[in-house]
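_Backbone structure tokens_
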Amino acid sequence: MGADGACPATTLNIPARFELRPHARGDFPYGWGVSLRGVEGAVGSPWARPLGGVLDQLVVESEVLAENPLGDPARRPLYVYRPPGIEFDHPKGLPSVYVIQGFTGQVDMWLGRQAFEPTMIERIDAMFTTRSCPDAIIVFVDAWTSRGGSQFINSAATGRYLDYLCDEVVPFIDDRYPTLVGRDHRGLAGKSSGGYGAMVVPMLRPDVFGALASHAGDALFECCYQPEFPLTARILRDHFDGSWDVFHERLASAATFDFQRHGAPLNAYGMACCYSPDLSRPGAALLPFEISTGRLIDDVWALWLEHDPVRMAPHHAAALRSMHRIYLDAGKSDEWYLDLGAQAFAQELAKIGAAHTLELFDGKHGGLTCRYPGAIRELVSALVP
């Protein structure tokens, strides 16, 4: 760009058979070549919509993820949203909400757009720009693994993602952003596997998080996971020689991710890495069913059930009762019956006297991005001193 804002002249090498000459309007059909010009500034809706706040796209290096069993990167992206007018030296401490992604998710997916919809970041920005939510710092955490996800817990097969979130990311944010330090001003939100993490992490680490919002979080494992075990057995038999090794080799070399063929086995093995890691083989898992028949292996399945939020709740009653806000929702047609999981978790919360709300709405498992801002507002409102 020239000093006066004009584009500098460019020399073009035009073949001799072409002649460049000025044209009057109308020389080309439909006025071609006479009206288009470059302009400054953001393109605006429905493309990149200018943000009122700021999204800081950071890169961090984790010590606890270094040398994880899968060899996954210890260097991670970390996104932090600041509302309009909030700088690093803001004089007033603000609540913070950490947003975690679903299985197979990674943090840059929050920038993706669905047809005729704002992105996740644009939705959050609109909420804060219109002042319909008190100011807060919103942190988007990446816990991707090459097995599809981490469930945000520590595992001998995937790595220490609970410690990464609670003991590395949270202190990093509190040290650099104007946050109110302490669990009473910190919330956790997510959907699907992120919703699972939002339920489980505050149970395991109530010293870190004091509020949670779960959108269709994994719960009631016999409903959300077990029905796919026979499907996975069939897929392995028919397409992958009945072998997990063959499945992983072919998935790694596949040109595209075919959800119909890869989805169920990837989910089953990824969850097994989190809930029933094979302690004798780093990075590997024990499966809770026989590949040849789909029949349950009871002792391994029991390890999974120990991680079910519905079954965990009674053992973490004090932590759940201490939450300033528990927000649950799910679509009534969720393909993995996570509406039933949300109801079962809510029933356990009621039994132990933990205040909560549950909203079931007309919808399936996908297309729930529109529900995040309202849940985040619920958490922020509960976390403001």
In short: The longest helix spans residues 259-275. The CA atoms of residues 1 and 7 lie 5 Å apart. Confidence is low (pLDDT under 50) at residues 1-12. The chain is about 30% helix and 15% strand.
